[in-house]
Amino acid sequence: MKVLVAEDDRMTRDGLVEILAREGYLPIPAEDGEAALRLWRETQPDFVCLDIMMPGISGYDLCRQLRAEDPALPIVFISAKSEEIDRVVGLELGADDFIVKPFGVREVVARIRAVTRRYMVTRAPQAEDGPFSMADLTIFPSELRARRGDEIFDLSLREVCLLRTLHRQRGRVLDRNALFDACWGRNYLPSSRSLDQQISQLRKRIERDPKAPEIIRTVHGAGYRFE
After folding, report:
1. What pLDDT, in 10s, does the model give residues 133-144?
2. How many CB atoms within 10 Å of residue 111?
3. Domains of the chain in sequence order
């Protein structure tokens, strides 16, 4: 899922790109409004994160233009302008959310996931969005959630992808390269540590006993498997 990040402050832009990439999105950075408009037309991202105060085309003007060309495009403002009127203007222009700087990583992740869920609900249903079960856990890709009884677990796009890939290849051992290709992309330079850390964190949330996992099992020296 592609996300255009229009932000003229390099540190903020790089931070957002890192957060989105870690969640499993494909971030497309733009240093100002003009670059963002050009990249939007070239890459057709699934949704857009906009700063308001940018040189050239402001975030407000860019939002107007994008809304005119694609009324359904999800748009999130991320800005240091924190007055109520700024939020009202942004939302009246058609933004789906408004995040105030400085922001916390958890806040950005939660709001981006919320926009993603709304996007998945409104787009045409796809076969891969349907729920599937792994042991006593049911995964709902379009909700970025999993359920076990009354327990609900929030998931990232990448975590959904890992679970779906293991589910589709049930009984087979998937090595690290196969999982990286499926959930990080073929252009990603693999690091076994990043995969192991991702799975370790996921196990802590979805396994009844992370030390004796029933869903994502390690096959030492080979990879991972779902029975």
Report:
1. 999 999 999 899
2. 18
3. 2-122 (3.40.50.2300), 128-225 (1.10.10.10)
